[in-house]
Design a protein that fits this description.
The chain is an alpha/beta fold and 401 residues long. Strands 5-2-1-6-7-11-10 form a 7-stranded mixed sheet, sandwiched between helices. Strand 3 and strand 4 form a beta hairpin. The radius of gyration is 22 Å and the shape is globular. The protein starts with 31 loop residues before the first helix and ends with a strand.
């Protein structure tokens, strides 16, 4: 086997300058290029594509731009909103109204009242007083906008802005913060410049509309739903990886400011119901969790038993975490089997993981679970080596019904 490269073009970094895909960054997101390559390799023209782990809408936006209709699910209502706004069609009038609203905001932002600050723990670590004041006034004027399309574009611009002006960095799996000791290192003028540049980028890319329709639904993908069974001929998705990197960690500031969550308990509850979620109380709930799937392979239990025996106080919880991840995915695979038409194909982009030196071979586990629920011609392709460990890779696992 030839040496596997890091291939950063298969990560979120490729999306930053890829039109609407660059509207909102999510570090665990996967690359536009992966979806495009999967579509090119299909031996047929798909009529309806399913994306059961929508995230920031990568799959459905690529499909829409290439003329393919799709339906996407996500359990997180904020991500459903993000994907819907990114895949929506905007008229010339929408764009003109958005442009006018941006310039009105920039000219009058200091005249507006401040919205209430979100209930984020230690919020001053994220934003200093002047940054908070700017964001709170910006929120007030945006939330007063009456045109739905314009308001959503402004809210998307607001999401980008609140991170750009913050002291937080998502360059690593753990959020880090810049020094925030000086209160006068930010001015409204700087904030307006940042907001304007973001709005210009969004306005430019919003003017290029997708070709086909995408529907994004707030739903738990462990169950695709009876009403949609036997409706899809293709599935392309990238589920959360079994590596404890939670989407909710990076999404919290957006979700607090936009009102999708109001407390850490809200975040924990959402993450507990998410496949692979481990944020806050979601981890402690693992203590009482029990396996319910009847199709998990025996070697998975061998792996988790080894993890549980490691000399680490979290070893037993992590063993349960791995079991719960594949337990939930097994229900997802069973549901997908009933939702894909005969001859249709599924394509999963996923990475393996490692706990205390014990490898969790996601590729093999996906292969075996897909075969168990009835898929055939299961194949795996390694697409990149991940930066963090020479034994960690990302794969495309494909199968046919």
């Amino acid at each position: 086997m030839s040496k596997i490269k890091k291939n950063t073009e298969y990560t979120f970094k490729y999306n930053i300058n890829a039109g609407r895909h660059g509207w909102l960054r999510l570090t665990p997101a996967y690359s536009v290029k992966v979806v495009e390559e999967v579509l090119k390799k299909l031996s047929y023209k798909p009529k309806m594509i399913l994306e059961p782990f929508s995230g920031t809408g990568t799959t459905e936006l690529v499909c829409a731009n290439n003329g393919f209709c799709s339906t996407a699910y996500d359990i997180n209502p904020f991500l459903v909103w993000v994907a819907d706004v990114k895949t929506r069609k905007y008229t010339e009038e929408d764009n003109l109204n958005y442009y006018n609203a941006v310039h009105q905001i920039i000219g009058n932002i200091q005249d507006y009242e401040e919205a209430d600050y979100p209930n984020i723990h230690n919020i001053e670590r994220w934003w200093n007083p002047m940054q908070l004041k700017f964001l709170a006034k910006l929120k007030t004027v945006i939330w007063n906008e009456q045109n739905v399309n314009v308001k959503d574009l402004l809210k998307m611009s607001f999401c980008r802005t609140l991170i750009e002006v913050s002291n937080a960095s998502f360059s690593h799996v753990s959020t880090s913060f810049k020094d925030n000791t000086e209160e006068d290192n930010f001015t409204f003028s700087q904030g307006k410049d940042i907001f304007l540049q973001i709005c210009k980028m969004i306005a430019k890319t919003a003017s290029i509309n997708p070709v086909a329709k995408s529907t994004v639904i707030n739903r738990d993908s462990k169950n695709i739903g009876d009403e949609l069974k036997e409706n899809f001929d293709t599935l392309i998705t990238s589920p959360p990886y079994p590596n404890r990197i939670s989407y909710i960690r990076e999404l919290r500031p957006y979700m607090y400011w936009l009102g999708y969550i109001e407390s850490s308990n809200d975040a924990s509850e959402l993450d507990w119901n998410t496949i692979g979620g481990t944020w806050g109380a979601a981890t402690s709930k693992l203590s009482d969790w029990e396996v319910s799937s009847e199709i998990l392979p025996d070697y998975l239990f061998d792996i988790t038993n080894k993890i549980a025996k490691e000399d680490n106080r979290s070893a037993n919880l992590m063993a349960k975490y791995v079991l719960k991840y594949f337990n939930d995915m097994s229900f997802h695979f069973s549901s997908v089997m009933e939702s894909i038409v005969e001859g249709g194909t599924v394509h999963y982009i996923v990475g393996n993981s490692n706990f205390y030196g014990n490898s969790v071979p996601s590729d093999k586990l996906y292969e075996d679970l897909l075969k168990t629920v009835g898929f055939r011609n299961v194949k795996t392709e390694i697409i990149r080596k991940r930066n963090c460990n020479k034994e960690l890779f990302e794969y495309v696992i494909s199968a046919e019904k």
